[in-house]
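Sample intake sheet
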Amino acid sequence: MPRPPARRTGRAPTDQVVARPGGRSCPDRGAAPVELAILLPGILVLLFASIQVAALFLARTVALTAAQQAVSAERGYDVLGSGNADTGVGAQRAAAFLAGAGDWLDPDPLPEPVVDPSGRYVSYTVSGTALSLVPGVTFTVSETATGEIERFEQ
């Protein structure tokens, strides 16, 4: 009995090199690893830059929240030294918040609150150094919060 002819699947056998039209071999072999080696440093720089920007935003948020905590304490207690509370109540509240906020911000020594000349508003500034991914580079963050002093008036 005669054997049926072999079917052709349209694919080249695996042991043959696929040639481009004109008889040349594919010149793009191995291009992907070279392209990756060229692009990878740029991708890593963008990745670390985005993490650094996020760390700066977190440090700014921590500084602003600490300043708001200090102003909130100073407005209600003893901004003018009336004897209702310790004079450093705002600094204590800011220091307590910064201690629990993590290492996003390395704060400078906490200053005293600033009262405007009219005695109606108090402001507090928290500054420090943000977490840095780049050795030898420092990013300084400073945030200020202001509030009206609470008092009874007739």
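Comment: The CA atoms of residues 79 and 87 lie 7 Å apart. The radius of gyration is 33 Å.
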